[in-house]
Design goal:
Blueprint (H helix, E strand, L loop, with lengths): L13 H20 L2 H17 L1 H4 L5 H33 L14 H6 L3 H12 L4 H8 L3 H25 L4 H5 L1
Helix pairs in contact: 1-2, 1-4, 1-6, 2-4, 4-7, 6-7, 6-8, 7-8
Length: about 180
């Protein structure tokens, strides 16, 4: 299965490739993972792994696709670990009769709405529309089937429309203002 991101042929050297792809990967990961520090770490880890294996990675059909996949996997593992840690901390706080709320409150901008999506939906939406990957490429980058990617994108679009419509209702706006 070929990953998106073009052919590895013609990539001059790691440093040039890193300068060309580094910022884009960090930006896409920041939105997909909704955690800038995790996104930066994931991008750094993916590029470090690519550098260690540069002779193989540069010869791949898609060095960019390989790097995105490594970064997404690393980032998701970090977020899962963080979630487990937070769950344990919340349990400890409850045991001490303390309350802990770490839910992001809506501030009305589109990013906060996107950030409220489940990780899989958020990742799919960001890769598709910010990363400009096709649905098939999104599936490959996320390591899921084409149908699962399509389903995640569809669910995310439905949820975004629902949230945007609810926001318009709360503000007393006409929905036609939002939808053109």
């Amino acid at each position: 299965m070929a990953l998106p991101g073009g052919s590895g042929a013609g990539i001059p050297d790691f440093e040039s490739w890193y300068r060309q792809e580094g910022t884009r990967l960090v930006n896409v990961l920041t939105l997909a993972l909704a955690e800038p520090d995790v996104a930066k770490d994931a991008a750094d880890e993916a590029f470090a792994r690519a550098y260690e294996r540069w002779s193989r990675v540069s010869a791949m059909e898609s060095p960019v696709g390989w790097t995105y996949k490594v970064a997404l996997n690393y980032g998701r593992r970090r977020l899962l670990r963080r979630r487990v840690e937070q769950t344990l901390l919340l349990r400890q706080a409850r045991d001490r009769s303390a309350t802990a709320a770490s839910v992001l409150g809506p501030d009305g901008d589109l990013w906060s709405i996107i950030a409220s999506l489940p990780l899989r939906q958020r990742t799919a939406i960001v890769l598709r529309y910010l990363g400009d990957f096709s649905e098939r490429e999104v599936a490959q980058l996320m390591g899921i089937s084409d149908g699962a990617a399509s389903s995640s994108l569809s669910a995310a679009r439905r949820r975004l429309a629902e949230l945007l419509n609810r926001g318009a209702d709360d503000l007393g706006m006409d929905r036609r203002t939002i939808h053109g």
